[in-house]
Amino acid sequence: MGRMYLCWLLLLSISAGVWSVPIDRNGANQEPKEEVPEENMDTGLYYDRYLREVIEVLETDPHFREKLQTANTEDIKNGRLSKELDLVGHHVRTRLDELKRQEVSRLRMLLKAKLDSTNTQSLQMDHASLLKQFEHLDPHNQNTFEAKDLELLISAATKDLENYDAERHEEFKRYEMLKEHERREYLKSLDQEKREKEEKRIQELKEKHRQHPKVNAPGSVDQLREVWEETDGLDPQEFNPKTFFKLHDTNEDGVLDEQELEALFTKELEKVYNPKNEEDDMMEMEEERLRMREHVMKNVDTNRDRLVTLEEFLKSTERKEFNNAKGWETLDSQPVYTEEELQRFEAELRDKEEELKRKADALHQEQELLKERGKALEAQRREYQQAVLEMSQRQQQGAEVEPPVGPNGDLQQQAHKPEEAKAPAEVQNNLPAEPPQNLPIHT
Description:
Layout: H1 5-10, H2 48-59, H3 62-70, H4 73-77, H5 90-117, H6 127-130, H7 147-188, H8 192-210, H9 221-230, H10 241-248, E1 255-256, H11 258-263, H12 266-270, H13 282-300, E2 308-309, H14 310-316, H15 320-323, H16 339-400, H17 418-429
Antiparallel strand pairs: 1-2
C-alpha cells in the first residue's frame, strides 16, 4: 500500500482512491513489480520516533487498516478517525499503552535535564503540569493510549509540519546573515589595500555564480518537458501531462507528494549549483529546492493538503502561466534579508557575546575561589597528618616505658637511683652538727 506523504507524517497511511497504472513503454505486458520498502524520511519533529512507532502499530490492526482505505485527509485532520481506536485489538492497545509510557518517560527525562541545566531546584516536580507544554499527548493520562492521544498527535503534527518550512526559511536567513557578519568582520581586520583586493575577489565570485543557464520556473511546461526529455528519455514533442504524472508517481499511490515533486527540480538546480564545487553552498541549494516546491504547491495544490492529485496536476497544465511562465529568479538575484535585519542580528550576537563573557568571568572567579579553598584544604590536610603522626609517636613512647610487674602481676616498688639517694645525704651533711651558741635573746 502506497503512503501519502502528508497523512503518513500526520500519523496514518492512506490508500489513494485512484490507483495509477504502471507505464509500459514497450507496449508489452510486464510482471507486477515487487513492493520496494520506502525510505523513512525524518519529519524533523522532536517526537518523530514516537509518531512512527504509533503508525507501525496501528498498521498491524486489520480493522483500523480497513478504515484507512476509505478515509480522506479531512477525516484524519478533524479527528473522526481517532474514534476508531476503540475498536482495535487488545494487543494493539497494549502496545500503544507501552509506547505512550515510554514517551512520557522520555519527556520526563528532558524536563529534568532542562531543570538541571537552569539550576532550578524542585523537590517535588508536578509532571502533569510540566507535560502540558508537549501538545502531542494527553498529560493527564500518562499510562494508557486513548482516542484523545491519537487526536492530539494528529493535531500537533499537522501544526508543526505547517510551521516546519517557515522555520527552515528563518534558519537559512540567519545562516546567511552570519556569513555576511563574519565577512564584514574579516574585512575590518585588513588594511585598505588587502580589503579592496578581497572585496574585488568576492564580487567576481558573485558575478561568476550568476552566469548560469536560464532556470525554468518549476511546474512550467518548459521545466516539465526538460525532465521528460533528459530524465525520462522521451521525445519532447510527445509530452503528455497524464503520462508524465504517472511516470513520476514513483510509489504509485495516485498523488505526487513533496519528495516526488522536489525530485523534479534536480535538473534546474544543477544549472546553478554543482555539488562537486566546494565554493557552491549546499545550504543555498536546499533553500532553492524548498522555494521551488512551495511555488508548485501554491499554484497546483488547490486544497492545500500538501499533495498533488492527478486532477490538480492536469488543471494546472491548463492555466495560462503553464505555457507562458517567466524564468525562475534564483537566490542570487534577490536579497534574503534587509540591512535592518542584519543590524538587529549583529546586535543580538553582541548581546550573546557579552553574556558569554560575563559567564566566563564568573566561572573564572569561581575557579580562583575553588583554588584558594583547595589550598586551604591542603594545609588542613597536612596539619591533620602531622597531628596524627605526633599522636602515633607518643603512643609508641608510652608503650616502651612500662612499670615493672612482679611474679604475681602486682606492681613493684622501684629502687631509688644512687643519685636520688645521695641528694638527701648531702643536704644532711650540710646541716650544722649542733645549734650555734650565744644567739641573741629577744625580749
